[in-house]
Amino acid sequence: MRRVKTIVVLLVMVGLGFFASNAFSAEGKGEVAPAVNPVAAEAIRGWLTSEAVHLNTIEAGHGFNDLRPLKKVFKDVRVVGLGEATHGSREFFQFKHRMLEFLVEEMGFTVFAIEASYPACFNINDYVLYGKGDRAKALASQGFWTWDTNEVSDMIDWIRDYNKRAPENKRVKFLGFDLQHFEQSFDIILDYLKRVAPYHVKTAEDTLKPFRLELSAYSQRSPEDKARARASLDELIGFLSFNQTGFIRQTSPGEFEKVMQHARILAQFDDSYGKAMDPKLASEPGVRDRDYYMAENILYLLNAEPAGTRMVVWAHNGHISTSKLGDSSAMGSYLHNWLGGAYYALGFTFKQGSFQSREMSEKVIGGLKEFTVGAPPEGSVDWYFALPGIDHYLVDFRSAPKDGPVGAWLGENHPMRSVGSGFSMKWSEQQYMQPLVLKDNFDGMFFIDQTTRARPNPTGMRGPMEPPGSK
User: Fold this and answer.
1) Same domain, yes or no, for 311 and 352?
2) pLDDT 10s per residue in the chain (471 long)?
3) Can you say whether residue 143 is alpha, beta or left, with left for phi > 0 and alpha for psi between -120 and 50 degrees?
4) Is the same domain home to 47 and 168?
5) Total domain count for the chain?
6) CATH number of the structural domain spanning residue 355
């Protein structure tokens, strides 16, 4: 437990976009699957086989005949959360691309939002909507190695091509909802103030200075400096809010609100990571607020669009879950509370294969590399989904029986693979098994038998690094 928690803190400290899938693993260390009842397992296998939406392919560009049963499943859904059991499986990314294609072309979804920086995704959005800039540079600018891959590049190219032929009100936006990599926010806030309140620019520059620090320096500030910096940021937000009417008169409601959201992102980051990035407060779950703010940002993005707009959300299984993330609520649980059945969480699982992740050890965050795992433990969620022997399929839980062997299985605690930003073959597989109740976490599941490593772009590669304070 101590080792995994140490790695959690270190990952947060270096800003790798760690979501608490590994925190799940910490809680699940030593968890084993309950004994398998052969009769119940056969009933579950039969139900999965009969209810499976068989997929002809996981790749986009091959029509939608096999996906048409999902029209009924997503009929009243406004936000579809697409999960992933790892951050580096090629087939997960490819199928998300195909799902986006289906939901856009067949069901009228017009917003795609990914677990990446809110400000840093504007470059990608400008590219897919207007062809501005270079696609490779735009994708790299969002900062996360997890998404800087061939598969995401292909999806961005598809969105751009679709937008060229789509009417304006049907074009697809590419947005981010995370609170890291916010460097663009500094320029946007300061440029706005230069136009509406040049007398306040110097004060704002001083306010933003602590947020320009490297993460190691940010985490090592004294409590007094941290409190002073946050008070100054709150004053800046208050200054903008107090002058809202006059600033809107000089610019526009849209411009003002954009600047306010960039300022909020800074406050969200400080709230979420202020404690988690401080080694002295490592045991406190400061990072838990991240999921609340990501959910809030998704709703913010959705509400900024015309009434009835529908959105596809890409994130890890742990985030799209409608239940807990460690000891606090997951992003998807907030969306479920706010949207009810209009939010649908589709988990992703696999039997065996490869993926990319950072190699972890006690003190060093290693480089990005390929890992391969074999068949899952008997009695795990992944094991059950492999029983039908179907290469790739989906199952909807909302129409599942509430009693009998299937209902009991969906309501029982079973471990499920969950790999975050780091992985180690030296540690027990149990470190990467998340104990969960399926019906409490997901509305449906996508399964694939065999996975391969996502293909990183040159700018998506990462070498080893030593976290601050590791020596």
Assistant:
1) yes
2) 333 333 333 343 334 444 334 443 333 344 567 889 999 999 999 999 999 999 999 999 999 999 999 999 999 999 999 999 999 999 999 999 999 999 999 999 999 999 999 999 999 999 999 999 999 999 999 999 999 999 999 999 999 999 999 999 999 999 999 998 899 999 999 999 999 999 999 999 999 999 998 777 787 788 899 999 999 999 999 999 999 999 999 999 999 999 999 999 999 999 887 655 555 544 444 546 899 999 999 999 999 999 999 999 999 999 999 998 877 899 999 999 999 999 999 999 999 999 999 999 877 889 999 999 999 999 999 999 999 999 999 999 999 999 999 999 999 999 999 999 999 988 887 889 999 999 999 999 999 999 999 999 999 999 997 554 433
3) left
4) yes
5) 2
6) 3.40.1660.10
Contact 299, 338 (CB under 8 A): yes
196 and 296 fall within a common domain:
no
Q: Which amino acid would we find at residue 379?
A: G
User: Does any domain span residue 332?
Assistant: yes
Total count of residues recorded for the chain = 471
Residues 322 and 365 in one domain: yes
In a domain, 94, yes or no: yes
Same domain? For 229 and 325 the reply is no
One domain, residues 117 and 263: no
Which range marks the domain in which residue 40 is found? 2-178+290-460
Reading the block at residue 182, the tokens are 């916010």
Q: What are the structure tokens assigned to 38, written together?
A: 């052969």
